[in-house]
Design goal:
This protein has about 100 residues and is mainly alpha-helical. It has one domain. The protein is about 70% helix and about 0% strand. It contains five helices and no strands. Helix 3 packs parallel to helix 5 and helix 4 packs across helix 5. The model has no long low-confidence stretch (mean pLDDT about 95).
Length: about 100
């Protein structure tokens, strides 16, 4: 494969990736179930347990994509102590949200 071939292939892949990123995300059946649990947790975050980590991650990912950093930070304050810190994804979403809220 020549440099020209590689360059053409990379342009095609880049265009395909850009197209995919513009498409709306449709939740899978499992994500819909987790989002329903997340909505319950939004109303009562203090009831969350380690078993709710997946639901929190799915819900926070949705909020992050929607630009709801303030809601994410507010919810994190009401979660049981240590729950966010025990999961890398939750900690990452919270750190990113805090960085955008503080600007």
């Amino acid at each position: 494969m020549t440099a020209r071939d590689v360059s053409a292939t990379l342009r095609k892949v880049s265009a395909l990736r850009a197209l995919c990123l513009r498409l709306p995300h449709l939740p899978t059946p499992k994500e819909r179930t987790l989002l329903r649990r997340f909505e319950i947790l939004v109303a009562a975050p203090q009831t969350a347990s380690a078993d709710d980590t997946e639901a929190l991650a799915v819900g926070w990912r949705q909020w992050w994509k929607e630009g709801r950093s303030d809601a994410l930070c507010a919810m994190a304050e009401r979660l049981p102590a240590g729950l966010v810190e025990r999961d890398r994804r939750l900690a990452s979403y919270l750190a990113a949200a805090l960085a955008t809220v503080r600007r």
